[in-house]
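User: Sequence in, structure out. Go.
Assistant: Echoing your sequence, followed by the structure tokens.
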Amino acid sequence: MSDKNRTMSARKKELPLQDDSSNLFLQVMISIAVFLFGVTLAGVLSINSMLATWNNSILGSLTVQVMPANDVNEKNAQAQTNEQLNKAVELLKNKPEVDKVTPLSDEQLQKLIQPWLGDGVDIKDLPMPRLIDVKLKKGADVDFMQWAEELAQAAPLASLDNHKLWLNKLIKFADGLKILALTILVLVVLITSGAIFYCTQTSLGLHKYIIEILHLMGAKDTYVAQQYAKRTAWLGFLGGVFGLLLAIPTIFIIANLAKQIEGGIISEARLSLADWSVILSLPLFSMVIAMGTAYYTVKKTLEKFM
């Protein structure tokens, strides 16, 4: 073995970073951070998926509502309502921008009101409006004001809803959740980086005299920083793996709870394979953050020490 190799081997043994009491604290801290980061990140990605689903399914469609006719004779009222429904359907089918027109059946209407009114309610006993689901062609440019006027002339009991009003409210709500979640992600990264910075500085203070000896042996600040960076990177990776192992079951539990909301829009939030790839890469992300923070801390601190 050459003199240079012996010197490097001695340096590694003389810097006992594996015995630092802060190692366990850092690993636990990083595990908690990755757990919080993973769950919150899954929430952000789910919201993005939900918004994309809304854009594809809602913005490309509209609903026509036909109010029930007001007549003492129930059969006459039903006949007038059906007549209005047929006129509205005929008008919409003749529109070149329309891809498909589907009047909702009694069974479909029953399913729509079931989450709110329960199983024991029959829509035949209620003055329920008839609904028409209209799918638009992709990229269709619709003059909704003109359509509403034409619809009012053909079927006075029918009204048009293009979902924009309430969809804008939902988008604002989702955007607010995203901002909150992203703020949490930033805070988690900052707090974890601060913990790594503090622990690394404490370790440098404990090993100050050893580091001075290493400098006398020819070691530079870069060498010491690399040793800390390697050790902290390993702690960051291990902590990231443990945190991810806790985060994944939590994400599935939250997803199952969301699925139980029947007819709810939250169930539209799903994670794609690309989303899962990002979540599963969190241990590598925590490793890079830990390594970079430790390296920067050692370089800056040694400039003041020495």
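User: And one key feature?
Assistant: The mean pLDDT is 80.
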